[in-house]
Design a protein that fits this description.
The complex is a heterodimer of chains A (272) and B (345). Chain A contains four helices and 16 strands. Chain A is mainly beta. Chain A has one domain (30-271). In chain B, strands 1-2 form a two-stranded antiparallel ribbon. The radius of gyration of chain B is 23 Å and the shape is globular. Classes of the chains: A mainly beta (272), B mainly alpha (345).
């Protein structure tokens, strides 16, 4: 009986050792093709306040108090880079997301990437030019140009996606035909199909080292928690005044807004 | 011959008759590149025209459910009898009689068109219907709502099933069906076409003289055989009351200010009024513009400024001859073709 007892003890010991090892080191499985979920959270804020649609009141650098009624933007072409400098690009068909402040689930962008430790995140704020000119059959999901009037992220008259859309009210905005004091920022422009024009496609790269690298493993879900500060859209290289520019859509001035809003993403922390 | 032989022979004859007759009745002639026309620009490899797809597209084209309150169809502003323009309207009125800002262009020979709309803002025919459906002054509706309405309206699910193999009604399928109808709207049966194809028809002397004048003065922009080069040009109309800057709104390039797409000269007899804002009601007014009213502007097309002063020089006799030639570009069969009409055969 003794040998059997020892066998059992040895086995248990071995098991404990292995379990312990797995927990402490958390090494990726040997299968390099094994993919796991990486979550990227887009937590929309306004300076040091959480963004609250309609009810929250914030003030931009031009001194104009305002409220936000709608905030939506495309996040696409996601890439991650690991500590060895190896980049993984999420397959394009699975790499288009529409973040909407009105839809909590949309603020968690989930992609499948190989297990690994990632210290850099890159994404496009908007929709790349290739997809912007693809056959209609390739425009499904969030790229379907079928959205309603207010939340539509597509220009029918000038074929192209609206990359970033923020609307709201401000005393500084002039009264529009509907009697409201609204501001409307619809920013897009993929560079033009047959003639070169406005290109507001922005690639954003975020270093995760300080806030915590993302350890992607099967069975768990790493979450890169980003803060997106909408005040940065107003305050930057050009301070946007609602009184001076209550409506900005397909125009040269949209470049200034896009140049500002690429600064709005800040990595807060990572939950592994 | 024995009775049996007779029977076999009769059966064979019947069989042959059945073979030859049935397919002819059902035969659907899809898109064809007319003799003398260039290769089409539309990507047929992504959307083969089929009988079921074409018929669904036609039904959608005449479907008022595409608009917010079920009042406006595509055919409302694109009447076949007017070569698919909005006859007599300088600019069109859409839903709730709201006025647009531009003249409804003809829907013809779109398979060769590289861009759509007067400013070329749409670069794919499959994306074009999104613009009028969502425009607040045209149909004022979202595609989501239209698709939902079609899903709940017989016989659309069955028609989508027939055209695309399943009853799913999606944006892409709806657009592809509309495109199948629109690319089939080919106008290539004018007198000019018969003369060019040497089908036993000749130009009259006056038409021939007009043709020579056309080649000399107009053909650089209104290029044969489609009578447009699909470019964008400022033809010296001057800014209208709404200061529509045309192509500039799409490219934001100052050289494109007041440039609009060169329209085809085919079917002019049916498509009055003329120009992007429909400001000219007659072809005589158009010729008067080109001969004596062209306004010099920074972006005026150089072809209209060749002799130190803006415009084209044409005597009144030459104008008559040119108008005679332009009449040979009308295609009566196009505006009466039953395949394209709301009450299809």
């Amino acid at each position: 009986m003794l040998p059997f007892k020892y066998t059992i003890y040895s086995f248990l010991l071995l098991l404990i050792t292995f379990t312990a090892c797995k927990k402490e080191d958390n090494t990726p499985s040997a299968d390099t093709n094994a993919k796991a979920t990486l979550s990227i959270q887009f937590d929309n804020i306004a300076g040091d306040k959480n963004l609250q649609l309609n009810t929250g009141v914030y003030t931009n650098a031009a001194g104009e108090p305002f409220s936000v009624s709608l905030l939506q933007y495309y996040v696409s072409n996601i890439q991650v880079k690991n500590s060895k400098g190896v980049t993984y690009t999420v397959p394009q068909d699975d790499s288009y997301f529409l973040v909407s402040e009105a839809n909590a689930a949309s603020q968690f962008v989930k992609v499948k990437v190989p297990e690994g430790d990632y210290n850099t995140l890159t994404f496009v704020l908007g929709v790349d030019s290739l997809r912007s000119t693809m056959d209609i059959s390739k425009r499904t999901g969030v790229l379907n140009p079928s959205g309603g009037m207010d939340d539509a992220m597509y220009w029918g008259w000038n074929s192209g996606y609206i990359f970033f859309k923020m609307e709201g009210t401000a005393a500084a905005a002039p009264v529009d035909p509907s009697g409201q004091r609204k501001f409307r920022y619809h920013i897009g422009g993929f560079g033009g199909y047959s003639a070169p024009t406005l290109n507001n496609i922005k690639t954003i790269t975020i270093d995760l080292t300080a806030g915590g690298i993302a350890k992607v493993r099967q069975g768990s879900e790493a979450n890169i928690h980003l803060m997106a500060d909408i005040l940065k859209m107003f305050n930057g290289a050009t301070n946007i005044s609602i009184a001076a520019n209550p409506t900005v859509m397909f125009s040269e001035f949209s470049r200034s807004i896009a140049a500002n809003y690429i600064q709005m993403f800040h990595h807060d922390h990572t939950e592994n | 011959m024995s009775r049996q032989q007779w029977m076999i022979l009769s059966a064979m004859v019947l069989f042959l008759l059945a073979c030859s007759k049935a397919p002819q009745l059902a035969a659907f002639i899809g898109f064809r590149q007319p003799a003398g026309f260039p290769a089409p620009a539309y990507k047929f490899e992504n959307n083969q025209v089929t009988s079921a797809g074409f018929e669904l597209g036609r039904k959608l084209f005449y479907e008022p459910r595409l608009s917010r309150n079920n009042t406006i169809s595509c055919g409302f502003c694109h009447l076949q009898t007017s070569a698919f323009t909005h006859h007599g309207h300088d600019v069109s009125h859409g839903i709730d009689d709201r006025l647009g800002s531009r003249n409804s262009p003809p829907i013809m020979n779109l398979a060769w068109s590289t861009t759509f709309m007067w400013d070329g803002g749409v670069f794919d025919l499959d994306l074009q219907p999104v613009a009028p459906i969502t425009n607040p002054v045209e149909m004022d509706e979202s595609l989501d709502n239209v698709l939902q309405r079609l899903r709940n309206t017989a016989p659309y699910p069955a028609l989508f099933q027939k055209a695309f193999g399943s009853a799913d009604i999606t944006t892409a399928r709806m657009m592809k069906a509309l495109s199948q109808f629109m690319v089939m709207l080919v106008s290539d049966q004018s007198k000019y076409d018969s003369v060019k194809r040497q089908q036993g028809v000749q130009f009259t002397t006056e038409e021939q003289q007009g043709y020579a004048l056309y080649q000399q003065h107009c053909s650089n922009c209104h290029r044969e055989p489609l009578f447009t080069d699909y470019s964008f040009r400022n033809n010296g109309l001057g800014a209208g009351p709404n200061n529509d800057e045309g192509r500039y709104a799409v490219t934001l390039d100052p050289v494109d200010k007041y440039r609009f797409k060169v329209p085809s000269l085919r079917n002019l007899a049916y498509t009055a009024p003329y120009m992007h804002d429909g400001r000219f009601y007659t072809l005589a007014a158009v010729l008067r513009h080109y001969t004596s009213e062209v306004q010099d502007m920074p972006t005026l097309d150089p072809l209209l400024k060749q002799h130190g002063q803006p415009g084209i020089t044409l005597t009144s006799t030459e104008q008559t001859q040119l108008l005679a030639f332009l009449q040979t570009l009308n295609d009566p069969s196009f505006i009466s073709d039953k395949r394209f009409s709301e009450e299809a055969p």
